[in-house]
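Q: My hope is that you can spare some time for a protein that puzzles me. Underneath my words sits a plain record pairing an amino acid chain with its backbone structure tokens. Those tokens are not coordinates but codes from a learned vocabulary of shapes. Thank you; the sequence and its tokens follow:
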Amino acid sequence: MGHGYLPITDAGLLAWTNNFLLGIQDTPTAVGLTTVQVSAYDLAYSEWRDKLAAAVNPSTRGTLTVFAKNEIKKQIISISREYAAIVQAFPGTTDEQRVSLGLTVRKSPAPIPAPDFAPSMDIVSVNGRTITVRLHDGSPNRAKPAGVAGATVLSYIGQTAPDEMGGWKFEGGTTRTMFEVSFSPTLEPGATVWLAAFWTNPREKSGPACTPVSVTFGAAALNKSGTLKLAA
């Protein structure tokens, strides 16, 4: 019957519900509750306390009192969960209040920083004007590094890769480490193309670009003119 913050034992649940009631009685609106809800919780707690006492007292303990205790226990757990969810979701509830009421303090997920390292880029194959590329982190593992959601790919056509990013063409983003980049079939034989990429995190914040790699095309082939295409 436990629910994370709710104790499993009868004695533990009695102490928890008593503490919760005392914590919400004076200023229920401070944690998103109303006086009507507090009154309802007070009644439920009192019945739960009394029936628990009857179930554990040797002079009154029996099949019926234990059954009644178990039934009201289900009810006090249900209303406790309901009100705890309201308190947790209320914007004005502080972590100090959550601790005081016996609730779980939820940790905010740590933001994933932008990658501080560049990928390594390998030319896997060249077919006509289509280049198959693989990105990796320098290890045998082909998966993306931790904290990396994808990569952004850039290209440049010319004998020497430019030092400034402004000279590069944006080819697209990919969530895969192997993909294809296709160039126009009208690109002249002997043309050199450069490719570079940088990792991005789930919020699309980018890291440093890798060292550019180049391919010098031979005779033109009839390929689609396009940008980034994921390899199968």
